[in-house]
Specification:
Layout lengths: L2 H4 L8 H5 L8 H29 L4 H30 L3 H6 L1 E5 L6 H18 L3 H8 L6 H6 L1 E5 L4
Antiparallel strand pairs: 1-2
Helix pairs in contact: 3-4, 4-6
């Protein structure tokens, strides 16, 4: 054991070391499924709000506009919770939870809210603006990290694997 290993506490050691297991990077197909689940949840909120707005918009257009605006505000709040707060505390979005994946720092630590916000609200738009190439990197690189993962210093792994 090195001096650096001897100084680490149980709270600062990597998750893989604490669990005594080896981290396995997440398959690209599961990552795609998790992303799809996250965005279907957000789109469903907006679609439902638009449907309500159209039903209310018959005679009073202001009621329809209010319902549509309210659904967009709710979708933004849910996006912040799902893509920023939940991963910050648990390492999972709703989609990652449903597919059995977890986001960790590259060194195995929990990511925290700051990295989750950086990954999802800075890294995702950059990956998208590059014609989606940032999202395709995990499929073609040996580390399995997308541009958003590289920016935030994170990796997506299978939950509970040895």
């Amino acid at each position: 054991m090195t001096a650096a290993q001897g100084l680490t506490s149980p709270q600062t050691r990597s998750r893989a070391a604490r669990e005594g297991g080896k981290r396995l990077r997440a398959p690209f197909s599961l990552r795609c499924g998790a992303l799809l689940i996250d965005y279907i949840a957000l789109a469903a909120i907006v679609v439902f709000g638009t449907l309500i707005a159209r039903m209310l918009g018959g005679g009073g257009r202001s009621a329809g506009n209010s319902a549509e605006t309210f659904s967009i505000v709710i979708a933004v709040v849910v996006a912040v919770i799902d893509l920023g707060v939940l991963p910050g505390f648990t390492g999972r979005t709703l989609g990652k939870w449903a597919t059995g994946l977890r986001i960790e720092r590259y060194d195995g630590q929990d990511i925290g809210i700051g990295r989750a916000v950086l990954r999802h609200f800075v890294g995702y738009p950059l990956s998208f603006m590059l014609f989606g190439i940032g999202f395709l990197l995990p499929a073609v690189t040996s580390q399995g990290r997308g541009l958003h993962d590289i920016i935030a210093g994170t990796i997506v792994v299978r939950e509970g694997t040895l």
